[in-house]
Write a structure and sequence with these properties.
The protein is mainly α and 303 residues long. The chain is built from 14 helices and 2 strands. Helix 7 packs across helix 8.
Length: 303
């Protein structure tokens, strides 16, 4: 049993009646500061399986999140069959993959990594796009500032990294909501404007007959910037030529396949007709022929 130590001075001090509390004013003084409110909130509990994953793979589930390789769920079950239960692991990985920090890592264009933290494969363009849009929606819902310029910048970088054309990119992402459609329209308009400027500079450079240094000096531009722009414009032209060639090959291939199918059908029909004629001839030959006497008898009995 613990003894209680009393202070004589405190015992002899008369009790002071508490001062009446004033009603809280609506405004600055009556409100609890936001910092105190945040401190009062209980810390969010971490899923126990996520804690285990952090202990096992701090590079992937630690301070910095990295996009996970496809099939990591099966890898974890195979590596730790006695540690993780299938349903609990699925829930934990779902929480991890839906977290804003993880989506930010996907939106940034990082490669997918294995459990050892080694990059193994790029993230598909549609996954990068959806991560960008989801992070944008979450941040915009908590902010009074217009965050569309930041989302547009990320989308431009993602589209350029994908190497897809406008039509191929739209077909890939299959996004139809109004916000995404509006952002993509703005992004592709800006990309078209940038491409037109690069093409114009390339034409000017090629028509000038100058060296890269002379052309840069003539227009007051940095040689490295001119070099990058010219190389970029030429790469765009080459990619456009390849895409155009592929687009022209598709109708030719489809037409050739249609002709081949038509010829096959014609040959099949001819073979069927030949088989039918052959069967008819066989049936006729197989029929018994009447003797002259039978033919005369039948003719005599005919009316």
């Amino acid at each position: 049993m613990t003894d209680t130590v009393t202070n004589p001075e405190l015992e002899s001090t008369p009790a002071v009646a508490p001062a009446p509390q004033r009603p809280a004013r609506q405004g600055g003084r009556g409100r609890t500061p936001a910092k105190q409110q945040n401190q009062a909130r209980a810390p969010r509990a971490v899923h126990p399986v996520l804690q285990q994953l952090f202990d096992l793979y701090p590079k992937m589930f630690g301070a910095q999140f990295l996009p996970l390789k496809l099939g990591v769920f099966q890898d974890l079950l195979a590596l730790h069959p006695d540690l993780f239960k299938r349903d609990e692991l699925k829930v934990a990985l779902g929480l991890h993959a839906r977290s804003t920090r993880y989506l930010e890592s996907v939106a940034s264009g990082l490669q997918r990594h294995d459990l050892n933290g080694e990059p193994v494969e790029p993230v598909a363009p549609e996954h990068v796009h959806h991560a960008i849009m989801e992070v944008f929606r979450r941040r915009q819902a908590r902010s009074n500032q217009d965050l569309r310029p930041y989302a547009r910048a990320q989308l431009i970088e993602a589209i350029e990294a994908s190497g897809l054309s406008r039509e191929s990119y739209r077909l890939c992402i299959r996004q139809q909501d109004e916000v995404s459609t509006s952002l993509l329209d703005d992004v592709f308009a800006e990309l078209a404007e940038q491409s037109a400027k690069r093409d114009a500079l390339l034409r000017m450079f090629e028509a000038s007959g100058k060296t890269m240094a002379e052309f840069s000096d003539m227009y007051g531009m940095e040689p490295d910037e001119v070099r990058r722009t010219v190389e970029w414009a030429r790469a765009d032209q080459a990619a456009h030529a390849v895409a155009l060639a592929k687009a022209q090959e598709v109708p030719v291939t489809a037409e050739a396949e249609a002709e081949a199918e038509s010829e096959t059908e014609t040959e099949t029909e001819t073979e069927t007709e030949t088989e039918t004629e052959t069967e008819t001839e066989v049936e006729v030959e197989a029929m018994p022929k009447a003797s002259p006497e039978e033919s005369t008898a039948k003719a005599g009995t005919a009316p």
